[in-house]
Amino acid sequence: MKLSNKQKQFLKGLAHPLKPVVQLGANGLTEGVVAEIDNALTHHELIKVKVPTDDREEKALIMDAIVRETGAVKLQVIGHTLVIYRPSDERKIQLPK
């Protein structure tokens, strides 16, 4: 899915007040965590995921894996927080053209 810059900015604005819906624990990225993220995306479309690790490479790998496994679009990364978007069947968020 390809988003225009205008659509990305719109989604970032919507994501700003949101709190992280899923936070990875000590076990890292497990199948259960991926399933929970997938479920949250289906319900909310736009979510934040907190990846608390100090290793930059590991954090990047985990975030890329989340995006790949869920089929979502990575909007931005701020510190340890990943903002992702995936439209659901009902299309709760109306994107600008």
From TrEMBL:
<feature type="domain" description="CRM">
    <location>
        <begin position="1"/>
        <end position="97"/>
    </location>
</feature>
<dbReference type="Pfam" id="PF01985">
    <property type="entry name" value="CRS1_YhbY"/>
</dbReference>
<dbReference type="InterPro" id="IPR035920">
    <property type="entry name" value="YhbY-like_sf"/>
</dbReference>
<dbReference type="InterPro" id="IPR051925">
    <property type="entry name" value="RNA-binding_domain"/>
</dbReference>
<dbReference type="InterPro" id="IPR017924">
    <property type="entry name" value="RNA-binding_YhbY"/>
</dbReference>
<protein>
    <submittedName>
        <fullName>Ribosome assembly RNA-binding protein YhbY</fullName>
    </submittedName>
</protein>
<keyword id="KW-0694">RNA-binding</keyword>
<dbReference type="InterPro" id="IPR001890">
    <property type="entry name" value="RNA-binding_CRM"/>
</dbReference>
